[in-house]
Amino acid sequence: MDTERDADELIAEGAAAPVEGWGFAWLAGRATEERPPWGYARLVAARMATVRAALDIDTGGGEVLAEVPAPPPLLVATEAWPPNVPVARRTLGRIGASVVQVADRPPLPFRDASFDLVVSRHPVDTWWDEIARVLRPGGGYLSQQIGAGTVRELSEAILGPLPPPASRHPEQAVAAAEAAGLTVVDLRTATLRTVFHDVGAVVWFLRKVIWTVPGFTVDRYRAELRRLHERIRAEGPFVAHAQRFLIEARRP
């Protein structure tokens, strides 16, 4: 815990560290987050072992997909953020997966009924109509998603009081899946304790998880970051709560 280090030193450290990919190893010893009880990576591995063609949307740096012990014969991942694409290609090359750079809007660059399985961990947006289109009849979609108001305490520490969240509610995802013609077969929710031990970890997190404080830059929010540093020194680690939900759907 870096409670005795200068705020600006910690802020500069968090601002300089690389954020490419979707791993969070840089936060080791500086921040922690509880894991959802359902074990997303384990569920993905189990589903992958039973199909011949699968797609991972918003793969990040490919970190989760690379853990699949028995990948299907055809395995494709998509990523829209350009710095992540070469990271994902390096990570996923060893399991024979192809990485396709895509736009941040539909459509997906695949033919109708191309995949038995589509998965996505923490998608930026879920294109339900496109997922239904690229799934084969009987195929499934499995996704762990960020829920409404996740780490809201951190957002409000920087931005001040916020209105109730209007999106990312699990019931909205269910309605959208059903509107696209899919049948929801599983829905689970979890609230996870997230702990930041120093303001450098906060800066790195806000640079990486960009929707927490939209438009975040250190220069814009330096005063708020310094206040948060003093709060951590006085009160101990800053605690927020992440919301997650798991949704699984099938194309009839």
Automatic annotation (TrEMBL):
GO terms for biological process: methylation. GO terms for molecular function: S-adenosylmethionine-dependent methyltransferase activity. Residues 55-139 form the Methyltransferase type domain. CDD domains: AdoMet_MTases. It holds the Pfam family Methyltransf_11. Keywords: Methyltransferase, Transferase. The keyword Repeat does not apply. It comes from the Bacteria. PANTHER family: METHYLTRANSFERASE, METHYLTRANSFERASE TYPE 11 DOMAIN-CONTAINING PROTEIN. This is Methyltransferase domain-containing protein.
